[in-house]
Structures are given as C-alpha cells and as structure tokens.
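[job 0412] stage=fold_complex status=start
inputs:
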Amino acid sequence: MPRGVVPRQPARTGRQDKVRTTRVRASVTPGRPAQQRSKAAPQQRQKASTKPVPARAGKVAGQTAGKPSSYNPIAPERVAEILKRLDQLYPDVTCALTHSSAWELLVATILSAQSTDVNVNRVTPELFRKYPTVEAFAALTPEELEPDIRSTGFFRNKSKSVVGAAKKIVSDFGGQVPDEMDKLLTIPGVARKTANVVLGTWFKKAEGVVVDTHVHRISRRLELTTQNDPQKIEQDLMKIVPRDKWILFSHQVIWHGRKLCYARKPRCAECALENLCHAADKTWSTVDTHKGAKA
Ligand code: SF4
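[job 0412] stage=fold_complex status=done
writing structure:
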C-alpha cells in the first residue's frame, strides 16, 4: 500500500467506525472523511440518538439511499481524486496477458473472454510454440485449433474467431495486425474491447477505454456511469477521464477489480477509494450508500 493511502479498518467491535445514526447531508468534497463532514451540520448532530445503532453494509443506519441534490458523481474534482488514488495504488500496471507481439496479444485477448488471464497464460506459451506465426494460424481449421484452447472455455467460438482473425490479417493486412481502430474492427472476433487492448497496450494509442467485466462493474459502483452497455460505458468514461489517462486507467481499474473490488464481497475495508465510493453492495462503509450505484 503506498504511503498516504491507508483506508480505515473496521472496528474490533464489528461496528462500522464513525458511521452516524443521524441523517447527515453528505458533502461531495472528495477525500474528506464522513466524520469530518458531519461537523458541518452541528444542529443535525444535536438531534442524534444517544444510542448508536450499528449500520449494515449496503445501507447506513438512519439514512435513506437518496442522494443530496448537490451530489454530482462525475464532478471533475471527484473524478480527479479517484484517478489520483488509482495512480497511488497502481502506478505501473499494465496488461497481465503474456505476449510478445500484437498478434499474440490479440489472440490472448480473444481467449480471455469469460476466462481469467492466469488461465490464458497457461495455454498461450505452448500455443505460440506450436503455431509461431499468423500464417500458421491461418492455415488451420477451427476444429484443429479447438483442442489447444479448450481449457479457456467457449473454445468453439474462440477457435472460429482466432482462425478467422488470422485469415483476415493475412489476406487483407499482409500478415500485420493493423494499428487503426476501423481496420481492427473488421477482423472476426475483434470488438472495441479487444481493439482497445491491442491499440493501447501494444501500439500505445489511446483510441478508447477498455471496458471489460472489471471496468464495467467498478465504473458503475463508483457512479462514473449509469450505463450497462459496454460501448455506452466507454463513451461515458471517455468524457470524464482525460485522454492521456485512458490506457492506464483501464489497467488500474482491472487490477483493482482483481485485487479488491471483487464482483462478490468486495474488500471495501481495505480499499483506498472507500470514502469516495457509495456503492450499494459495499461490504463496509463510512459513507452513505446509493441505491443506483451497483454493479
Ligand atoms: S469501496 Fe468497495 S465497492 Fe467501492 S471501489 Fe472499493 S472495494 Fe469496490
């Protein structure tokens, strides 16, 4: 954990530390802890019950899930604070898929759908030893490739995509993976997510934001978007995250999803974004939670 980014820990009593039972109007000042914000409303504090009721995760006692009208989850200062903390947490992260060329990265990304990077990294070294070039893949039938990628799941569809992609790259792009979004999107099995991974990680071109399952879930929990469709989520993120951060932001959020912000039982008590996050499915909270902020 980098210096200066130390989230509060749950109290030994099991109660959520500092969560008040009063209706406290939340400030949107990023990084300002809940107990400091409550000082701004002394008259409300006076009305507080003297008998605190332990709050449950997902709903803070005494508060409704409604948001103060002034709350703007995509306020530039809030987004900047989230980005700053992600930089502190994950300063040098990159793509976890093992690869040594744009083609290998493209194949690994296709194989990673509905699978884990660890799983894909177990398969690809032997795969690329067996078929070392795009042309070698293009010469296969999907059925021939299936046994080699079976363990990554959905192997029939993935096999069709990989062989189809190889044939297209050989026939239309001279065996070289193109470095333009429009061209990448003509390749079988390549949609914006895969294209953004290849463009950002291999070609260092920021053409969009990678929206995989982690980015999808965490962007919604952090209220950076209310959309459910990956393309619309990407559009929302492109509007609020500066372009020079698009590539790193995707990697950081993906790592955050792997390390702490799990789909089930996120480790909120250890999360440095905790007091900025109002997700309805938090497992521990020092701030009010918002009904609509869920994965
Ligand atoms: S506080 Fe919990 S839900 Fe929010 S970003 Fe952190 S781990 Fe995820």
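[job 0412] summary: The chain is about 45% helix and 0% strand.
[job 0412] exit 0
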